[in-house]
Amino acid sequence: MKVNTAQFMALYAWYSWPNVVLCFFGGFLIDRVFGIRLGTVIFSIFVCVGQVIFALGALLNTFWLMDMGRFIFGIGGESLAVAQNTYAVSWFKGKELNLVFGLQLSMARIGSTVNMNIMGWIYSRVRDLLGYTGPSTLGLTLMIGGLTCLFSLGCALILAYLDKRAEKLLCKEQGKTGEVIKLTDVKDFSLSLWLIFVICVCYYAAVFPFIGLGKVFFIEKFKFSSQEASAINSIVYIISVPMSPVFGLLVDKLGKNIIWVLCAVITTLASHVMLAFTFWNPWIAMCLLGVAYSLLACALWPMVAFVVPEHQLGTAYGFMQSIQNLGLAIIAIAAGMILDTRGYLFLEVFFSACVCLSLIAVVMLYFVNHLTGGDLNWSAKKREKMQKVAATEKEI
């Protein structure tokens, strides 16, 4: 389509920037207006419509239409992730929640890996079929890729049916408190929840922007070929596919979420320090980063469910996604400026500083949880025992 790099990167911006606000309101709408079932279906429809408009923009060689498609896709995309997290907690809280979050991460990474490897092949097949390269080829390829969005919508509809059926069979309505979420409830979020938000933003700021810039880093510092650099840069996601469910199951069986998060953050810091100040084989550092990334996601995200009332879960996860998008957008801009003016060594120091902030927040969370008698660092056995006691008291 003869677009420059700035125009191409704008497609990402149209998705990320709106979600600084939209994720929070998506969570609020799930909690207060639509409910989880209708909300999930509505956001899935936004994703489908956005992808169709995006593909039409390519088909008609109209780039502003593609921007609009990405904006609509973004309205649904991140809010759908909030709905997914809320569903997971609703179904699995107190049981296999960490495992479920690990499986969610694995499926997301499988999707990313398949997309990166399959879409180019589909494009070449469509080009051979049409006999030329042009907007029609790109548009048709994006339409074919959009079939996964239709599959997602189908899953949302099936899940809504299953959830409604479970509500009747398990009498889930009887357990509701009658409380409703208000936007002003954000001011009542606990210190523990705010520290979880800080850990999330500072940690992912040192992972996603680094991977975005990593290929050239490995080419310049370690003299890798383009193919080698791509392979090592993708190892973080590849490792997370099998390891996320394993770590999720491990955290479920042992508990102690804060300790696992602490281990993940320290390992990530070690990885960035190795990449910044040594010429050791970078495969070591990147494999460590992949393991740590998988562990953190399984242990951190479920902790929100332990510190937030169930009627506020959608809003809490939405707020977490919102500030994560804000942090990633700002850090990505800062990282680009540092790279242009100071080079990769300063960039790695910057990422290490972000991880250090995350580490400080984890240590603070440990002490806040300990002083307030929170359950974030309970063992799995103790959590199960206390849940049984609470259930018994409720029946009495």
Automatic annotation (TrEMBL):
Any GO CC annotation of this UniProt entry: lysosomal membrane
Catalyzed chemical reaction(s): L-histidyl-L-alpha-amino acid(out) = L-histidyl-L-alpha-amino acid(in); L-aspartyl-L-lysine(out) = L-aspartyl-L-lysine(in); L-arginyl-glycine(out) = L-arginyl-glycine(in); L-alpha-aminoacyl-L-lysine(out) = L-alpha-aminoacyl-L-lysine(in)
GO terms assigned for molecular function: transmembrane transporter activity
PROSITE patterns named in the record: MFS (PS50850)
SUPFAM superfamilies associated with the record: MFS general substrate transporter
InterPro entries: MFS, MFS_dom, MFS_trans_sf, MFSD1
Principal location class: membrane
Transmembrane segments: 12-30, 42-65, 142-162, 191-211, 231-251, 258-277, 283-307, 319-339, 345-368
Membrane-protein topology: Multi-pass membrane protein
Domain Major facilitator superfamily (MFS) profile: residue ranges: 1-372
Subcellular location: Lysosome membrane
Keywords per UniProt: Lysosome, Membrane, Transmembrane, Transmembrane helix, Transport
Role summary: Lysosomal dipeptide uniporter that selectively exports lysine, arginine or histidine-containing dipeptides with a net positive charge from the lysosome lumen into the cytosol. Could play a role in a specific type of protein O-glycosylation indirectly regulating macrophages migration and tissue invasion. Also essential for liver homeostasis.
Subunit and partners: Homodimer. Interacts with lysosomal protein GLMP (via lumenal domain); the interaction starts while both proteins are still in the endoplasmic reticulum and is required for stabilization of MFSD1 in lysosomes but has no direct effect on its targeting to lysosomes or transporter activity.
Family: Belongs to the major facilitator superfamily.
UniProt protein name: Lysosomal dipeptide transporter MFSD1
